[in-house]
Write a structure and sequence with these properties.
- It is built from five helices and no strands.
- By secondary structure, it is mostly helical.
């Protein structure tokens, strides 16, 4: 009975975490038009930037959390049988009368990478 409750809680937490990492929906055309900025005077054209020298870094900053997360090495084993791992941990915890703390995330999730670095550091 207790394992069923833990599985239900795990499923709910997983759904919530996946929903939190999704991108917001695209606004409808009516909403997008109402949010459009008012007409302003045209901006002056910027002066051309000088060519970078061989000493300058040419990397550009990533545009989104997804790009930053995909550039990093994976922190979660994508081929692991997570159901078996959780069941094994629950059985061991039950035998030892201990609690289980589940850590989950996605290699595609920028916040998961940030939190992983925080949790794994000595700071």
């Amino acid at each position: 009975m207790r394992i069923h409750a833990v599985r239900s809680a795990l499923a709910l937490m997983t759904l919530c975490s996946v929903a939190a990492c999704d991108a917001p929906p695209e606004p409808t055309p009516e909403v997008a038009e109402s949010r459009a900025a008012p007409e302003l005077a045209p901006e002056p054209t910027p002066e051309p930037t000088p060519e970078p020298t061989h000493e300058a870094k040419t990397e550009s900053a990533p545009n989104s959390e997804h790009e930053r997360a995909s550039d990093k090495p994976p922190i979660y084993d994508e081929h692991a049988d997570n159901t078996a791992l959780v069941e094994r941990a629950l059985a061991q915890a039950s035998a030892e009368r201990k609690r289980v703390l589940l850590m989950f995330g996605g290699n595609w999730c920028g916040w998961c990478h940030k939190l992983h670095e925080l949790f794994e550091s000595d700071a």
